[in-house]
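User: Could you check the structure of this?
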Amino acid sequence: MAKTKAVKRKTRQYNRKAETGLPEGQTLTGMVTSLFLCYMFVVYPLYMHNKYFDITITKYRLFMFGVLCFACLMVPAVCFQLSDVGYKKKKTGRSEKKFCLGKENLRKWLMPADVFMCLFLAAGFFAWLMADHKREAFTGEMGRRCGLQFILLVFLLYLCLSYGCRLHSYLFPVFSAVSVLTYILGILQHMKLDVFRLLEDVAVRQKNSFISTFGNINTFASFICITLALFCGCYLLEQVLWKKILYGCSIFLGFAAVIAANSDIAYAGCGAAVLGLLFIALYQDRLTAFFQIAVLGSAGYTAMACLNRYSHIETRKLTGFNRLALHTEILLPLVGVFLICFVAWNLISKKEKQKKTDVRKKIVFTACAVFVVMLTVFVYGVRNHWDIFTFNDQWGTYRGYIWKRLGELYMNFPLAKKIFGNGNESVRALMYAGYYDEMLQITGTVYDNAHNEYLQYLVTMGLFGLFSYLGLMASVLAACVRYSRKKPELSALGLALCSYLIQAFFNLNQSITTPYVFLLAALIIGMCRYEKRQEMQS
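Assistant: Sure, the predicted structure tokens are below.
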């Protein structure tokens, strides 16, 4: 009887370890991590204080509160585990406390991304030293609250979340349900149905610039890029029916919300996600699921386009790439094409079920086909002088103007500022001092951000800051690729990260959706670190 109870106890311990992904005795820290992720996946996206009037500072304080509470609970546990505290019995039979942080322990824990995250923190500190306005550089109040204080917060987030935890199976479905609510709210506002009266006090000329629970349309588009890519990856890998249905609803409504966001940023990020998803589907032999995603996404987009065009409900004016939604005569056949491809692939796969195909050949062929299509579009667009291929001050809603001027300013920096930057969130001060009158005359506004994250880091944090950020993201993606065979869910997280990094070429870093990129990076490294420890222990 005693033996049976011991076996049952060990079985429960094993199941608890398998569920949390944490070593025995670390279930409490696993619960704290899950609680923080629920906070970021449920409370953070939905909470608003004074509608859109203080959306940036509200989300920033919400993020700060969550990270600081998380750190207060997790840092002691992380330090305990990193220090390898244990008990060693001596010959006398007495116990002695042993403190060790040697090469072997570092090999178990250290990842390349950890080094780059520390370098990114150092770059933020040096940029703060270079700043003319120290207080503003620390708080980031001259820009979008991404000052040194924000960098300290994301460093704490990374430290606590990446130390080796794994995900509970319910977290992504919960995040999917919350994201659906934000999509629906955005769609209703696009159709001029402001059910929560979030826009009633906003100036008429600015009403089209705010949407959902994220404020600016570009910020909402950034959230769509992250979440749609994540849920597409989850749908591709998921086997449980109810979760697959939930992710399918997210994909359908998410692509419909792309029209509501009315931002070209969404097309850049989601396009990259779909392309990445195709290669993952080829690599993992899941083309059937990929075609299902293509049908769901195109159906959601087309349904929203038809509602936008043929219903009597007043909607917002469509601009940029969103004008594609006006051409339903193209979109409706597109859904049919995806359906035909889906049926055809099912028939072919049944006939060739026993045949083994070379995955690498499929990937190479697809990559060549994509390259040819993109090159053809580029050459045709340049020859026909499409606006997107004509770079001038007006390009990308005056992104051409701000990029050119910040490039000129950076080239005139002294060597120290070229390396360490002009100071955190200092773009507004630079543009105000150098181009104030011209900026108002040409663009009609005062810019406080480069609208390109990489250029923003280069100007404000220098080559050191840009190098550390790119190194961090590259090392995270490299770890994701390495361990994705053992942990397929890493593919979904990596896809969401890639989607954000592509849209970041045209978008601005801010304290609303930018925290998610560091959260994704920390989750990926945490899961990879756990797998690395398992490899070294086996």
